[in-house]
From TrEMBL:
<protein>
    <submittedName>
        <fullName>DUF2791 family P-loop domain-containing protein</fullName>
    </submittedName>
</protein>
<feature type="region of interest" description="Disordered">
    <location>
        <begin position="12"/>
        <end position="38"/>
    </location>
</feature>
<dbReference type="InterPro" id="IPR027417">
    <property type="entry name" value="P-loop_NTPase"/>
</dbReference>
<dbReference type="Pfam" id="PF10923">
    <property type="entry name" value="BrxC_BrxD"/>
</dbReference>
<feature type="compositionally biased region" description="Basic and acidic residues">
    <location>
        <begin position="12"/>
        <end position="22"/>
    </location>
</feature>
<dbReference type="InterPro" id="IPR021228">
    <property type="entry name" value="BrxD"/>
</dbReference>
Amino acid sequence: MSIDVNKILKDRAQQSQKDRYSKFGLKSNPFPKSGTANINESSDQTVALAPIDEKVHKEIVNYIADSLYASSKKDQKLIGTITGDYGTGKTQLLLYAKSIIQNESKKAFAIYINNPGTNLPQLIGSIIEKIGQEQFKKYLWTQVLDEIKKPKNTYKADLEKFLASPQGDMFGKSNDPFSIENEANHKAFLDAFIKQINSRSKRAELNNTLKHIILSILEERNQDAVIADYFYNLISEDFGISKTWETITSGSGKYLNNKVVKLLNAIIDIVQEQGFERFYLLVDEFEDITSGRLTKKESDTYAYNLRALIDKERRWCLLIALTRTALEDIQKISPPLADRLTDREINIERLSTAQMKILVLNYLNLSRENSDSLTPFTEEAIQMVNKITGELPRLALRKLYFLLERAADSESINEIDVKFVEANLQ
């Protein structure tokens, strides 16, 4: 039997979402095509897809409550590990935790990272990248400017020596380097001074003075000249911000491997200065560090550095996701690290028949008014899909999407039963 390609595509193009799924009482196909969690979906949708295993749900909520509302400000650290086979919903659970954390009254900064990288500086670089280049520059510049303006320091007086008159009054308030407009960034601030200096040598002296002040402030804050230099290059753009940004976020900068604790400390300082009371790092696919991507030496170095980071910086919470096998591999590589990663261990099992029904209902209700009906699926059809997919949510959701699409193609199909599943999946 030949396939009329043009008719299939033409019919589909002319069919609206509403018309296509209305016979099922749905507005759209709610199941993800790939079966994987969408890291860009709305917070409301993520929360709606709460864990279906009550034990897992309770454990993740306890982790959030115990870390978010811990009384100690100096020791906030709580490490959690989500384990489970591939496709059991570890990513969805991480995103669910992130949504809950961000919707609580206590202001918390939560970053989701879907790859731990091949070394620890890459992981730290990913955190900075998530904050964003312009935002990170703004945070750094605000830190510097606040120090320059503090009465106890001589920085402001040292810079005002280069002005034609105090506060730039000779040239109007718009040229005052300390006006709101000119304090916006390093370039505007520097330009406001330079406009009042005719001598090339004086301009060079000003530039060097400002650079020395910024480096001094950054080094004092971070207790490290290398980090101060990287941050200065970001603020000033002297050596090309794109190159500096890439160096930091990729973790490829010289000596950065020995600076991860101080880098994380700098990030947490910045985050807390924006009013956030807690800092969370949620890392997915953590099994990558044991999957053969790294040599034994690289794995050992990663494990050692992460252990040091966990021990030395206590103003953060870490929640990672990996397979159970990968956790066992880490236990072989570094028992002390494995012990630290499992303050809390949350294990996701494969789907039971009852859990499969709840999963289907949760997704169907994203595309209709809440209901207890499995329509258009029969209970037997759902059981069959769960069996065919090895009780793995990712594979089950992928097949459910496919089945609903094929049923929508046919005007005569209003119910997805065992017969329909057998015809399309086996």
